[in-house]
Design a protein that fits this description.
- The protein is α+β, with helices and mostly antiparallel strands.
- It is built from 2 helices and 5 strands; from the N terminus they run ββαβαββ.
- The chain has helices spanning 26-32, 66-72, and strands at 2-7, 13-18, 51-56, 82-84, 98-101.
- Pfam families: Fer2.
């Protein structure tokens, strides 16, 4: 199991545990944990409604792909540590990370 922390739009933090052996994306875990992530493109890196900012643990996640960067760079708020949750797999490198929900369409 991988454990990481999610900060919502109101600044509330919650620890999440997720299996690292099933190939889930961070977006899928956020939705399953009932966070209001729209993910209208279904995880294809086309809508950026699963935008997150990695507050801690970004070094292990690697760099965003060109497709991911194309979406992120068009957002009203884009940070050097911005990522799309649909493009991050639940694996050891996410363990201990802290992330903030940033999707512009999060309700």
């Amino acid at each position: 199991m991988i454990k990481f922390t999610v900060e919502d739009q109101d600044g509330n933090r919650q620890d999440i545990e997720a299996p690292d052996d099933m190939g889930f994306s961070l977006m899928e875990i956020l939705k399953a944990s009932e966070y209001p992530v729209l993910a209208t493109c279904g995880g294809m890196a086309l809508c950026a409604t699963c935008h997150v900012e990695i507050l801690e643990g970004k070094d292990g996640l690697g760099h965003a792909t060109d497709i991911e960067l194309d979406q992120l760079e068009n957002l009203p708020e884009y940070f050097p540590t911005s990522r799309l949750a649909c493009q991050i797999r639940i694996e050891d490198i996410l363990d201990g990370a802290v992330l903030r929900l940033r999707g512009e369409d999060v309700v």
